[in-house]
Amino acid sequence: MIGGHIFSVETNLTGIELDVEVINDGAPSVAKNWTLRILLANGTQLSCQPSRFPPVVPLRGATGGFGKIEASQELDTVTAIGKKPRSGALLFYKQVEERAVLDPDTILMLTVQDKNDKTYTTHQRIGDWPKSPEPR
């Protein structure tokens, strides 16, 4: 995870767009079966699968700034990975209050599998995410 945005869609539905980079140092493979686990500061654990991007995702959330993400930046649910790093975005929705996800002690855990079903996990605490400046 190299960044992302957290934004509210409607009451109790929060969108989480993650910017990711997949690096492969072995034979060509795939990145598949993406899963996001959200470990809220209160101890609640939530899990979600990626959603398809609409043509444009307007970003209104506080984390990561403002702007929009184009569907062309989306990683496929099964993404071919060669020797060159592959960057893109994943979009998740979960029925949870945005403020709970934005708590600095919330941890996002992103899991993916390769073509041999080996699982890889990375995590990041919301309080450690880089912040973008507010628009003027």
What's the tally of helices? 1
CATH topology: Immunoglobulin-like
Count of individual domains: 1
Largest sheet at a glance? 5 strands, antiparallel
Query: Which range does the strand content fall in?
Result: over 45%
The CATH architecture is Sandwich
Please give a structural write-up.
- By secondary structure, the protein is mainly β.
- It has a single domain (3-128), classed as Immunoglobulin-like.
- It is built from one helix and ten strands.
- The protein has one helix spanning 98-102, and strands at residues 3-10, 13-22, 29-39, 45-48, 56-59, 67-70, 79-81, 86-95, 107-113, 119-125.
- The strands form three sheets. Strands 3, 4, 7, 9 and 10 form a five-stranded antiparallel sheet that branches. Strands 1-2-8 form a three-stranded antiparallel sheet.
- The radius of gyration is 15 Å and the shape is globular.
Task: Present the secondary structure layout.
Elements: E1 3-10, E2 13-22, E3 29-39, E4 45-48, E5 56-59, E6 67-70, E7 79-81, E8 86-95, H1 98-102, E9 107-113, E10 119-125
Antiparallel strand pairs: 1-2, 2-8, 3-4, 3-7, 3-9, 5-6, 9-10
